[in-house]
Amino acid sequence: MKRAPLPRVARTSVAATGLAALLLLATACGSSGPGTAGGSQMTVWGLQDTALNPVQKSTVKKYNDATDGAAASLQTFSNDPYKQKLQTALGSPNAPDVFLNWGGGNLSTYVKSGHVADLSGDLDADFRKKFLPSVFAGGEVGGKVYGVPMEGVQPVALFYNKDVFAKAGIKRAPATWKELLTDVDRMKAKKVTPIALAGSQSWTELMWLEYLLDRVGGPAKFQAIQQGKAGAWQDPAVLTSLQMIRDLVDRGAFGTNYGSVGQDSGGADALLAKGRAGMELMGSWEYAAQLATAPDFVKDGKLGFTTFPAVSGGKGDPKNLVGNPSNFFSVSAGSHHKSDAVDFVKKTVAAPDYVSKLISIGQVPGVAGIEKQLSTGPNAAYTTFVYDLVKQAPSFAQSWDQALAPKTAQTLLTNLQQVFNKQMSPKQFTEAMEAK
Length: 436
Fold this sequence. Notes:
CATH superfamily of the largest domain: Periplasmic binding protein-like II
Strand content: 5-15%
Number of helices: 21
Helix content: 40-55%
Number of strands: 13
Number of domains: 2
Structural class: alpha/beta
Shape: globular
Largest sheet: 6 strands, mixed
CATH class of the largest domain: Alpha Beta
Radius of gyration: 21 Å
CATH architecture of the largest domain: 3-Layer(aba) Sandwich
């Protein structure tokens, strides 16, 4: 997700294009000029989002009405230029006081450059307990807190068409890898593509490797890769995971023309909704996308959702997640309004009114204790499912193409696509990544 400035966020844009019931974060486009730290106002930078921005503006107004300190000024930017604007501004007199980021590799880069304030001493235990642990951890770098969750969670889940399953004699969603393979064979026998895959966009393929490596080897295997440890890419668990992917390809799990299917154009989603495919592994915004483009498919109860299957003998906990824990608010290290910036973050991101408004626009905040709010809101079964996934997850790994450095992420995506297209063997992949 780091080839373009904010690709994963951009992927969810379809989920924000219209309905208050849409479930997870989507980032729209627009523009706004930069602010100046040290001025009469505290600048807060974010992204333009037709659903979220009114909530943020309301929150800023409420904060300003109550504060005796510097007033907050929200400035929003279009999706793609934002990362470049932020990189240019941080460390300069034009740096924002508070800014949105995605955690992982992006945040780590800013921290290493000395541009982000360490919030560890400003956030007491009571504040931290307001968030789900796996979500809050996404804003930590080296055991210190540099970012605080400020939007909805985005775990990856397995979606399926209940009608397709029924016609293939499948009575329940696959709980194990062995069951998934059996289901693939059953659907293939019915002349249905078992798994929809938008193979023209390699980030959709990455989800398979992310989950399989976790299930086979546990979270430590990717942590070693992320830390740049020698030999990490050639770990046996990586090779095993890639071989499992190749087995899926060879079985015809993705059909034969997945390389020409696009996700941004809704190609894979349409295959699932129209019954031409049985399953799809996708970010939790998939429900929102289907609700927007195939509402009857969702409202008639034909869209199923479940966790990624467990792998027999694997070291990873089946409750572990991959995806995007959240987006985060951080404070510039050079802010002239640092105390006010910290105060703004502490008083807004977990405030009951703010959380309620996030839920009202279809987001699932990573905040503790909101089960009742979700269970009585729109699309309760799904939002509760997503929330419980995150709440119960021992580990929530950030999508690799956000967590890794941009150059490494691009090489990873290019090579992985070649594995899916049978242009590179699993062993060649591990050798190429280790030698990068």
